[in-house]
Amino acid sequence: MWMKTLIEWDGKTVAELIDLYVSCHESPEFEKILNECLKSTDHNVQKAGSWILKYHIEEGSLKNYTKMRLRGKMKRNPETESSLSEHLSTLIQNVNDESPWEVKLHLFQVLRYIEVRSSDERSLKTIVDKGLKSEKKFVRAWAYDGLYRLMLQYSKYENDFEEVISRALAKESGAVMARIRNILKEDKLS
Questions:
Q1: Contacts of range 114-117, beta carbons closer than 8 Å, 24 or more positions apart
Q2: pLDDT digit string, tens, across residues 4-29
Q3: CB–CB of 44/38 below 8 Å?
Q4: Does residue 100 share a domain with residue 154?
Q5: Is 109 found in the same domain as 123?
Q6: Residue 103 sits in the same domain as residue 176
Q7: What are the pLDDT digits (tens) for 38-82?
């Protein structure tokens, strides 16, 4: 049911994806199916899968967990963390130059919630570097955030982050600059 729905998805209407998520997220097969979507070479399926992962974390059944974790008000749940880490790893391993820009955007947007495995760190850095050069402003904006999240976990990227942000402050504007300001504000608080 999932794959047929996602292959036929128009690529824009999220109501279909929400309905699919609501009907399946409590199924024992959900995690497996989501990983299959993230691995898919069908761009529509991969884009839908990355959106569903983002929704699962931000608005779905993990919403309270991730918000409380971000505020430091909840201890880590190893089972949940492992599942999220597995999905993130699958997504990182399957994003490539041909992946839709939305997949890259969703990847960068979920990084604030999930720790990056050391085995995925270099691949993610490559994806982030390419995202920083994207013609799509939202991808570029969130790639800066992705670099920040990577730097928080892997201090070896601290100098790179500072150099990239310094250059960005001189050349970026609009939505990209707003995202950078949010990153800098958050960095001052931590």
A1: 114/57, 114/81, 114/84, 114/85, 114/87, 114/88, 115/81, 115/85, 115/153, 116/88, 116/92, 116/149, 116/150, 116/153, 116/154, 117/85, 117/88, 117/89
A2: 888 899 999 999 999 999 999 889 89
A3: no
A4: no
A5: no
A6: no
A7: 999 999 999 999 999 999 998 877 877 777 776 776 677 778 888
